[in-house]
Design brief:
With 231 residues, this protein is an alpha+beta fold. The chain has 6 helices and 5 strands; from the N terminus they run αβββααβαααβ. It has a single domain, classed as Alpha-Beta Plaits (2-Layer Sandwich), CATH 3.30.70.660. It has a 5-stranded antiparallel β-sheet. Its EC number is 5.4.99.12.
């Protein structure tokens, strides 16, 4: 039955709208452990987050997402994908996305890491310096390798992701587990209770003992920085 599912235009339009809430400079304290509202380190710049491609493989439909940002924190992208998927499939008002950037503490589950990969690194700041530099420096441009990169993606990376998802059904299990634990996510229901304003700030006089508990999987990803794009 799951293989027969196809996202209709209305659903894709809503999904892209939800992803659009991430664009710009926002506070991502709810998207990574040990982060709090009001801290400079919680602010990140997302330049794009959208549906990049839709294709069929092995009788199933796959949706490829592209996210481009100046830097990413631990598990940030996994939680961004998670909330976008959950808001879209639940049918609640997409304005909930804006609430996640406010001074509230949301419990956002981690989406599976399967399928997350770094496609390329962008050097926008370096290129700006290059334009002003009096020293002759070479431009770093991956566009000349577009054909080779695309070949690696479609012949090695995507087939591996599809094969593993078919065997493990990580995303199916993820959605099922959330459905079974809706008491942990009351805000996922239309008119449901939102976390209180003021709960996203760091407790005063807090030390390491007051660090928020790690979500499952929070310990298994490295911090990714310096203007990266992931698909």
């Amino acid at each position: 039955e799951l293989k027969k599912f196809r996202a209709n235009p209305e659903l894709l339009e809503k999904f892209n709208k939800v992803l659009g809430y991430y664009k710009g400079t926002k506070s991502y304290h709810n998207y990574s452990p040990y982060r709090y509202f009001g801290e400079a380190s919680s602010k990140r710049v997302m330049r794009d987050f959208s549906v990049s491609k839709i294709f069929e493989e092995n009788g199933s439909e796959w949706i490829l997402l592209k996210v481009e940002g100046d830097s990413f924190m631990l598990n940030q992208i996994r939680k961004m994908v998670s909330l976008a998927v959950l808001v879209t499939r639940s049918g609640i008002n997409a304005d909930l996305m804006e609430k996640s950037f406010e001074n509230r503490k949301f419990n956002i589950p981690n989406a599976p890491s399967l399928g997350l990969y770094l496609e390329r690194t962008l050097f926008s700041y370096y290129k700006q310096k290059l334009e002003k530099s009096t020293v002759e420096l070479k431009d770093i441009d991956f566009n000349q390798y577009e054909g080779e990169l695309d070949k690696i993606k479609h012949e090695m990376i995507l087939p591996t992701i599809i094969k593993e998802e078919k065997e493990t059904q990580d995303f199916v299990t993820f959605c099922y587990n959330v459905d079974c634990r809706m008491h942990n996510y009351p805000w996922l229901v239309e008119g449901g209770e939102l976390p209180e304003i003021g709960t996203g700030e760091k407790p005063k006089n807090s030390g390491n003992a007051d660090k928020p508990k790690l979500e499952e999987g929070d310990e298994d990803e490295a911090d990714v920085k310096n203007g990266n794009r992931s698909d």
